[in-house]
Amino acid sequence: MAELEIKCQHACKNTCATLNEALRRETAMVRFYESVLDECNMPDVSSYMSGLVEDKRKVILSLIQKLNEIHVRSQALDGIASSFNNTDG
To answer: Rounded to two decimals, what is the model's pTM?
Structure first.
């Protein structure tokens, strides 16, 4: 098995590079499974691959949701921090 080429940057702001890479790879897997489905003429294999596509789509949705949560939380924290930095008042 190949070694992971991902190294966590530990300094992400408004996002997560590791989750973005996972999203990219999961999306690529869905495309691969869908291409297999286009070529497959065995009903049991086609059904199995359809299940894999559906499972991967759920993972993709979960990754997108988590990335959105990270973004919203980061924006909220930035807003709080900027309110303390406001020297006008």
So the answer is: 0.75
d(CA 19, CA 4): 14
What's the pLDDT tens digit per position in 63-74?
A: 999 999 988 887
What tokens does 8 get?
A: 């966590």
The helix (run of H) or strand (run of E) holding residue 64 is: helix 43-85
> What is the reported pLDDT for 1?
43
Contact by Cβ (8 Å): 33, 89 = no
Neighbouring CB atoms inside 10 A of 29's CB total 15
CA distance 57 to 23: 10
Q: What's the start-to-end Cα distance of the chain, in Å?
A: 59
63 contacts 23 by C-beta, under 8 angstroms: yes
